[in-house]
Write a structure and sequence with these properties.
The chain has helices at residues 16-28, 52-60, 80-94, 111-114, 121-138, 179-185, 198-206, 229-233, 250-259; strands at residues 2-7, 33-36, 67-70, 73-74, 100-103, 144-147, 152-156, 169-174, 189-193, 217-222, 238-242. The chain has 263 residues and is an alpha/beta fold.
Amino acid sequence: MKQALFVPIFDELAEPRVMASIAADAEEAGWDGVFVWDHIDYRAPVIGIADPWVTLAAMAMTTSTLTMGPMITPVPRRRPLKLAREVVSLDRLTGGRVVLGVGIGGDNSGELTHSGEQTDDRVRGAMLDEGLDVLRQAWTGAPLTHRGEHYVADGLFVRPTPVQAQLPIWVGVRYGRPKPLARAARFDGVFPIEIDHPDKLAETLSALERPVDRPYDVAVGAQDDTDPRPYAEVGATWWMRGFSPFGITESEVRSVLSAGPLR
């Protein structure tokens, strides 16, 4: 099982140079990845929030082996073609070390309401599915002609193409919601949210029809020193060592980072 830091890039960590340094030190300490949150607003007392793409680009320039990406990007509040180019550019900058985490997003912090975005879960689910189709088509480098319910592309090209022949997409799903699992099965990995016991992960995976003809990742984690090994025993391939978004500090992250992943 691979292990990563899963960092809310808030307040002290809303500085791309700080995250670039953390990523470099995490790579040196033996971590396999560093993933960052993607928000434009959050609940108090959070004030500072970094852009994930600028932050990831800074991290790319200080590392050479670390896997990285946003976890998760709410595709319905993004333009798929712009997102397609952002991901390609980052993938090329890293030499093929990007994973794209996706989901419908949520309004717990009011970031959809406050910015006039779609708040209906079903509509955002349809936007996510259509947006993912656009992304996959765009990354082929072939002319993209798409006219759907939510997005339009008229003979556009996304070039250059990604370094990775199949750029990995992991789909975020909340525990107890089986419908998104069908979406997750179509892609390259799943990131089950609100999993606080190995039995819950086992239950989730039993309902997921994972592909058997290609690699498939299962990423799960906690915001404390939970032992990841029981999760690996039921199918986790990545452990995401997370942090509370409230009052997060650079020293807290560095304390976990320096201890290194559990092997």
